[in-house]
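Before the break, one more example. Copy the sequence into your notebook; we will annotate it together after we see the structure.
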Amino acid sequence: MSKVRVWTKQNIAVLDQLSRNGRFIADEGFIRRELEDTADIMLSIYEWLADHSPTADKRPDDVRYPVWVSLEREATMIPEDGYVVLELEIESDDIALLDTAKWTCITNYSYIPENEDDRERHTDYMKGLGISDARAVMTDFYPEIKAEIIASWDRLFDENVRLGSDTAYGIVWEVRKEWIEKIIK
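Here is what the structure looks like once it is written out:
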């Protein structure tokens, strides 16, 4: 197996959890503190992500949500007071890669098209109905459309579906103390 170097920006309190438990996992309370007003929306998306990740079978029993990692140091958010960036070295098999453009579609409750023809078909259909993807997903008025949009999210992990970007992030189920190469404050 090959190892890969990744980075993750975390609240400084994560260092206490790593010291006490030898690992950090993202729990609901942690996510709510970090995401504040958008937590409810993002938690439902994170639950979808956790259940559909290609590494879902590796998720420890006590883990519900993933931890985000950047594949490039420059792509990691800039350190700020109360936060640290952890430089990690982990097995490549432990990371699920996510195309950032497709992930943005999901966080916007949008459809991920299979190709350009599929994009045009979906766009024309939604225009004809006079609704947005987000409205279809966030309400109970369009169950078939909502199901189609959410089903399209499975393309997040399909390398054959491209949205014009090569940038990616990764998710892991935990951060282990032994993975830490450097702590950047």
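The mean pLDDT is 93. The first strand starts at residue 3 and ends at 11. Try to locate both features in your own notes.
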